[in-house]
Amino acid sequence: MYRSASALVLSLLATLTPAPSSSPSPPIQAPVEGGEPATAPVLDISGKTLDTGGKILDIGERISTLDESVTNETSGRQRTITVAADVLFAFDKATLTGKAESRLAQAAELLKAEAAGKPVKIDGYTDAKGSDAYNLELSRKRAEAVREALGKLVPGTDFAVAGHGEADPVAPNALPDGGDNPKGRAKNRRVEIGFTR
Fold this sequence. Notes:
Oligomer: single chain
Number of domains: 2
Region (Disordered): 17-46, 164-197
Protein name: OmpA family protein
Domain OmpA-like: 76-197
InterPro entries: Bact_OuterMem_StrucFunc, OMP_bac, OmpA-like, OmpA-like_sf
Organism: Nonomuraea diastatica
């Protein structure tokens, strides 16, 4: 009884022991009383290894205030803070309002934490009302005003400023029937602060 239990244990251990990868070894033999030795199978794990690599997708993240006047969006290593121009400026103006100070202070904290020593882009946008030339100038002046304020809050940062006018709208300026879309135009009036993390 003892020898057959011993043979059974050896047989089980043999099935769990991998063979060397260069060439399979002969089967392990366990002695059995009064007969031929028992032969245990050998597990061969020297098969082909498959490439498990694949495309890595960027995971994005978007956080915004309830009224969506400020959004903080991440895509890969790129972070963009978008502030509604209506929060920063009075209608048709490029002078920062009192409300703008707290919004830009929040952006400055993020720049200090994540953009130290990196270039930061500030892009101004308008809605589609008014002429192209006027909108380009207004969007540039607004981006400059944001750069000036952030320059005081985050000194030593290298800012690149551009005004894009009504280019790159994020919402329709007009309704499908051709009527005015005030909510869409409000979303298009914005300043984007972007950097690579």
